[in-house]
Design a protein that fits this description.
Largest sheet of chain A: 7 strands, mixed
Structural class of chain B: alpha+beta
Oligomer: heterodimer
Number of strands of chain B: 8
Distance between the termini of chain A: 15 Å
Radius of gyration of chain A: 20 Å
CATH superfamily of the largest domain in chain B: Butyryl-CoA Dehydrogenase, subunit A, domain 3
Low-confidence stretches of chain A: none
Strand order of the largest sheet of chain B: 1-4-5-8
CATH class of the largest domain in chain B: Mainly Alpha
Number of helices of chain A: 11
Shape of chain A: globular
Radius of gyration of chain B: 21 Å
Number of strands of chain A: 9
Largest interface: A-B, 56 and 59 residues
Number of domains of chain B: 3
């Protein structure tokens, strides 16, 4: 349960992200303009230090804030800043980002161009501090900066936590928020848009489409919460697998359906819908897509054997 | 309504779960290939469950219940389904007839019917659908005509699971002529299926089973004492049953035996494709189970989570149909497929009913759409 202080943090995140993430900020970020004002607000309110031990917040609250960030498509590498500050025990204001180690390169670094420090997750699920290297500007299909650092030097940072799984969970939390928003946009459009003399929400075909979307979103919210609830537990990795796999499946269904509800309007750049659907399509690939996590979960279950499948599923929480 | 809160089963349920597993391991007649709650009618098995105290277990002790929580009931029901146990005989009485009587029934009705249900000796059927009444439940035409001391029931109920073996049917009937308010004038009556002027004719389904029936009332007498709740209040009463009916583990576990046999075939050395199929099914099952448990928590807190229950059923029934497809397409060529084939064929042939019974997919999506403010 969220306590009073935590609720204040969530309320203020909701307010700041809602005010700060308007269409023009999202558009500008996509052409490479870093949202300085928003970043300043995040720092003034201490959001960037929320995951530091002793901040008074729990990781549960951190992921709740990321869900809100996803809901507004916050164009900042907030997940990276939060977790990098935690793992480096860094309480400064510089921006630290996190990428993936590939030989001597670090790939998929959110806003690497803006970062003063960078760490990377390697294939052994270790965290590496990275120095040097040349930056190449890249972006994902949502236009979010995902830069590459080539020819870097790196050294291991000792971290007790499962870094790859926590990064994957950040994508689940962001997606959960964005999925909620996409559903809301669908509901709003359906109840405003008129055709044949009535709002299209009165057509059964539209109602059923949005009912399917709502069911998918509800499933994602539950699976995301369950993974967060399992932080620190032995079953955490398999709960992340469950959530990331389930979320990825939902993203395909929800994005397709809500675009269909919006008609050509949602296909325009001018409409805000794509800022969320494109992020969802990008995030479902980051830190392992459905098949990656399904296979991890599946191998775990196969090792238990057919007669223990039910016992694995029938957890108390 | 999209927020399904965390529910943790109390740690007392671990012991209960072990007891159910021990009990099931000692039953010799579990040789069923599916986990479908409508297909295994076994009075002796139900009687043994009753003796264990696992029927009506949330009900007051005054009527033979155990006053245990919805969570404990949840554990028992999901263990039975996962094992493919034959639960059909007592299922409806335990899940909804008993709770209906506890909410709306008279003291005399509770005294008369609940102890038999709890013992696993008294079985009930649902009397809702009719030849011309499916999803449009308010259109029922079965009537009950006032006579001295009771009612004469005439009409036909359809798709009545277990009516040929069960003892009673709680029938939704029209006790007043249709009016502008089509939900008015409906009542629920307990009819003895063995009474005169009640004829039960089996209907064979496409899976070869004869679990459901046509029930014809030809002026069957029902005493005033057997009207559930107030005459005319039937609509409110039937809709209140739906939270119980739509969100339980039977709404996503029907195909579970297919999964177990699938894992048995691929477990030794799974390819990526096979492992992903195993994991995909697990991700759905874990999530559905948590949503379903969350609704059990709402019921425990005396809420009426009708939209939440519809969301669970919508997702769960679609998944029950998807499970055999995922497994089929990931099946290796090697290995002894006998047990898989048995479970797969049994489940596939039953699968068209998954998204029909207890409210069709179309009705549920309508319920959800209403919850979303679209209608």
């Amino acid at each position: 349960m969220v306590g009073h202080t935590q609720q204040l943090v969530l309320d203020s995140a909701e307010k700041i992200f809602a005010n700060g993430c308007n269409k023009s900020v999202l558009d500008a970020a996509e052409v490479g303009q870093f949202p300085e004002a928003l970043w300043a607000l995040v720092r003034e309110n201490g959001f960037h230090l929320l995951a530091l031990p002793g901040s008074g917040a729990e990781l549960e609250d951190v992921f709740a804030v990321l869900k809100i960030a996803g809901r507004y498509a916050l164009p900042l590498p907030l997940a990276e800043v939060l977790l990098a500050n935690r793992w480096l025990n860094h309480d400064g204001d510089e921006l630290i980002s996190i990428g993936l180690m590939r030989d001597s390169q670090v790939v998929e670094v959110p806003w690497g161009r803006q970062a003063s420090r960078c760490v990377a997750v390697n294939a052994q699920n270790e965290l590496m501090e990275v120095t040097g290297g040349d930056l190449r500007r890249r972006s994902n299909l949502a236009g979010e900066p995902r830069d590459v650092l080539i020819e870097v030097q790196s050294s291991i940072v000792h971290v007790e936590e499962p870094v790859f799984e926590l990064m994957a969970l950040s994508r689940v939390a962001l997606s959960a928020g964005a999925l909620q928003r996409v559903l809301e946009l669908g509901l709003q459009y359906a109840t405003e848009r008129e055709q044949f003399g009535r709002t299209i929400s009165k057509f059964q075909a539209i109602q059923h489409t949005l009912a399917v979307v709502a069911a998918e979103v509800a499933a994602v919210l539950r699976s995301a919460d369950a993974a967060v609830e399992a932080i620190g537990d032995a079953r955490f990795a398999m709960e992340v697998a469950t959530a990331k796999a389930r979320t990825g499946e939902a993203v395909g269904i929800v994005a397709e359906a809500v675009h269909q509800v919006h008609g050509a309007m949602g296909f325009t750049y001018e409409h805000e819908l794509h800022h969320f659907t494109r992020r969802l399509w990008a995030w479902r690939e980051e830190y392992g897509n459905e098949v990656y996590w399904q296979a991890r979960l599946g191998r775990h279950i196969c090792a238990l054997g057919a007669d223990n499948v039910w016992d694995f599923l029938a957890t108390r929480a | 309504m999209l927020q399904f809160d965390r529910v943790s089963l109390p740690d007392t349920t671990d012991q209960l779960r072990r007891e159910v597993r021990v009990f099931l391991s000692e039953c010799d007649d579990l040789g069923r290939a599916n986990s479908d709650f409508t297909t295994g009618h076994n009075a002796e098995f139900s009687r043994q469950l009753g003796a264990k105290g696992w029927i009506g277990m949330t009900w007051p002790k005054a009527y033979g219940g155990a006053e245990r929580s919805f969570f404990e009931r949840y554990v028992v029901t999901e263990e039975l389904l996962a094992a493919g146990a034959p639960v059909s005989a007592h299922w409806v009485a335990d899940r909804q007839s008993g709770p209906l009587l506890l909410t709306y029934g008279s003291e005399a009705q509770r005294q008369k019917y609940l102890p038999g249900i709890v013992k696993g000796e008294s079985f009930f059927s649902i009397g809702m659908s009719e030849p011309n009444t499916g999803s449009d439940l308010a259109s029922v035409r079965t009537t009950a005509k006032r006579v001295a001391g009771g009612w004469l029931v005439s009409g036909t109920k359809l798709w009545t699971t277990g009516a040929h073996l069960n003892h009673y049917i709680i029938s939704l009937v029209r006790t007043e002529p249709p009016s502008e308010n089509r939900h008015a004038g409906l009542s629920q009556l307990i009819v003895d299926l063995k009474s005169e002027r009640v004829a039960v004719r089996p209907i064979k389904n496409m899976a070869g089973g004869e679990d459901f029936n046509e029930v014809v009332f030809d002026g069957a007498f029902v005493a005033d004492d057997d009207v559930v709740g107030e005459p005319g209040n039937g609509w409110e009463q039937v809709t209140s049953e739906l939270g119980y009916e739509r969100s339980g583990p039977e709404r996503f576990l029907s195909a579970f035996r297919v999964y177990v046999e699938f894992v048995r075939l691929v477990a030794t050395d799974p390819s990526v494709h096979e492992a992903a199929a195993v994991g995909r099914i697990a991700a759905h099952l874990k999530t559905l189970r948590r949503m379903s448990m969350s609704v059990a928590g709402m019921l425990e807190n005396r809420k009426t989570p009708n939209v939440e229950a519809a969301l669970v059923k919508e997702l769960g029934n679609n998944f029950e149909k998807l499970l055999p497809e995922i497994a089929r397409l990931a099946l290796p060529l090697s290995g002894d497929r006998t047990r898989f084939q048995e479970a797969y064929q049994d489940t596939l042939l039953l699968s068209p009913s998954f998204t029909l019974r207890g409210g069709t997919r179309e009705i549920l999506r309508g319920v959800i759409a209403r919850g979303l403010g679209l209608r």
